[in-house]
Amino acid sequence: MSFKLPDLSYDYNALEPYIDARTMEIHHSKHHVAYTANFNKAVEGSSLEGKSVEEIFAKVSSESAAVRNNGGGFYNHNLYWSNMGPGGGGEPTGELLNAINGAFGSFADFKSKFSTAAATRFGSGWAWLVKQADGSLAVSSTPNQDNPLMDLTDVKGTPLLTIDVWEHAYYLNYQNRRPEYIEAFWNVINWDEVSKRLKA
Ligand code: MN
Question: What is the pTM of this model?
Fold first, then answer.
């Protein structure tokens, strides 16, 4: 297996009451496991073997749906787990806060824009905070398992923060109330990790 499922750096119940342990367990140990296995299956024995996800995504428009969907599922969930954590929430500081203020006017305006992108993504998908090639920040959303590293995506760049808005990310606890899950997500964001990605 060339692409490995990451262990979480916190327990399945660590994000309660915002994200419940059962949802976390199924999401990581079933959904993410399946994306990872199917991505490896799609890559093995093909010309993509040995390439990084970034290299694969840069030309994903010419690859199979299996590579696009499962590669995105593998990568997007890695980022999602790592940009959450117990003791998260609040507001970013320093360079990240300055960049957010510069791009969106204020943290409150950024929060509103990101939450709206997540809430209005029709069907399944993700919302993103992206660092674009010119260094500026943008908010976007993608359908299915697409992401900003993919050549076929409208808003391209380095993903800094993401939220999964597939129903499997919230349905057990929130049922159809996606906006409540999105509001809860702000309490578990690991801003240190997001800052690290901005500087990388
Ligand atoms: Mn998911």
Answer: 0.97
